[in-house]
Amino acid sequence: MSKQFAVIGNPIEHSRSPELHHAFAKKTGIDLNYSRRLAPLDGFESSVHEFFSQNGVGINVTVPFKEQAFAMCTQLTERAKIAKAVNTLWMENGELHGDNTDGQGLVDAIKALDWDLKDADLLIIGAGGATRGVIYPLVKAGVKKIVIANRTLARAEQLVADLADSVPEAQLMACSLTALQGQFDLVINATSASLSGDALILPETLTFNHAYEMAYGKASSFIEQAKARQVPSSEGFGMLVGQAIEAFYIWNGVRPNLKDFL
C-alpha cells in the first residue's frame, strides 16, 4: 500500500510538488502517492481533517493557507513558530505537527550554488511572510547581518522588532527601498514583483556579489539587473526543490541529494 501525501492550496494546478516527490521516491525506493488537492477558500481545515482521516501521512500547504495551517497545529517546530506559517503537516500520536521548510530550502539552494553564507551580509527585499519564514534558517546557517528593505519602512521595522529576539546572534536592520545603499554578499528578492510584473529598480548606490530570486519560472527584472551588473544570480527553483526535500525527509526519514534534481 503506497503512503499517501498531498499538497493543498487554492489555486493548486500549477504546483510542481507531485512531480518532485515522485522523483524523490523513485530515487530513494519509497512507495508513495502524492496528489494535488484544491481546498475551497473557506474549507482548508475540513480538507486537512478529511485527508488524515483517510490514512494520509503528510500534507504540504501552499498559498493562501500557510497561516491557517500554523493556527491548526498543536505541535510546532522552532522555525515554524518564528515564521508563524506552516507548509508541512503530519499527524503523530493524534496531534497535528507543523513545520516550515521554506527557509531551509533557501539555505540548501544557496549552498548548492557554492555561495558562502558564513559571516555573510545579506539584503532581503520585501517584508512579508516569505521573508519572515527564512530569517531563522539563514542566521542558523551563519549569516551575521540581514537588512530588510521594504517600500513601507514601518513594515520592515515591525518585522525586525518581531524577529530580533529569535536570532540574537545576528544583526537585523530595516531600511526603506528608496534609502538602499551599501555593499552586500547576497541580495534576495522576496517580493512578488517578478510574479506581478512590477519593476523592481535597484539603485546604483547598492552593490552586491550574488543575487537570488525566490520566485521561479517568470521573467524577473531583479535577475535582469543582476545580469546587467555581471553578478552571479539564480531564480528560486532550487529553493522549491530544497523545501520539498526537507518535507520528504521529515515524513520519510531519507534526504535526497538536492543537486540530483536541479
Give an overview in words.
Its EC number is 1.1.1.25. Shikimate binds at residues 15-17, 62, 87, 102, 212, 243. Keywords: Amino-acid biosynthesis, Aromatic amino acid biosynthesis, NADP, Oxidoreductase. The protein has a six-stranded mixed beta sheet, with helices on both faces. A six-stranded parallel beta sheet has the order 9-8-7-10-11-12, sandwiched between helices. It is built from ten helices and twelve strands. With 262 residues, it is an alpha/beta fold. It has helices at 17-28, 44-53, 66-72, 78-83, 102-112, 129-140, 153-163, 193-196, 221-228, 237-252, and strands at residues 3-9, 32-38, 58-61, 75-76, 88-92, 95-99, 121-125, 145-150, 171-176, 182-189, 206-213, 233-234. The protein starts with a strand and ends in a 10-residue tail after the last helix. The protein has two domains: 1-98, Leucine Dehydrogenase, chain A, domain 1 (Rossmann fold, 3-Layer(aba) Sandwich); 101-234, NAD(P)-binding Rossmann-like Domain (Rossmann fold), CATH 3.40.50. Strand 1, helix 1 (17-28) and strand 2 form a beta-alpha-beta unit.
